[in-house]
Write a structure and sequence with these properties.
The chain has 90 residues and is an alpha/beta fold. Helices cover 48% and strands 16% of the residues. It has one domain. It has a three-stranded parallel beta sheet, with helices on both faces.
Length: 90
C-alpha cells in the first residue's frame, strides 16, 4: 500500500492527500487549471503551502511537460522498489 500516486485538483481531495502523504503511503500531486484566473495562487495557498501535496503543476502529462516527467519518474521508482522487495522475498 506504499505505492499510491494520487493526483487531485482541489479541497475535496484533501482527505485523500492527507491519507497518502501523512501516512507515508505514497505521493500526492496537485494540479490547477491555468485558464482560470488566480487558480495557481489559490492552489498554492490551499494545497502546496500547507504541504498537502508534493508538487503543484498544470495538468499536462506529455513527455515534454513537467508533471508528466515527474509522474513517470515516480512510477519508475515505485516499480523498482517493488522489484527489490520481491527479490528479497525469494
Amino acid at each position: 500500500m506504499h505505492n499510491i500516486i494520487y493526483i487531485g485538483d482541489g479541497l475535496t481531495d484533501v482527505p485523500c492527500f492527507s491519507l497518502v502523504t501523512k501516512t507515508g503511503h505514497g505521493l500526492a500531486f496537485g494540479v490547477f487549471d491555468p485558464a482560470k484566473k488566480n487558480a495557481a495562487k489559490t492552489a498554492y495557498k490551499k494545497l502546496l503551502a500547507p504541504r498537502r501535496v508534493t508538487t503543484l503543476n498544470k495538468p499536462l502529462y506529455r513527455d515534454s511537460d513537467e508533471l508528466g516527467a515527474i509522474l513517470r519518474q515516480a512510477v519508475e521508482e515505485r516499480a523498482a522498489g517493488i522489484g527489490l522487495s520481491e527479490a528479497k522475498a525469494v
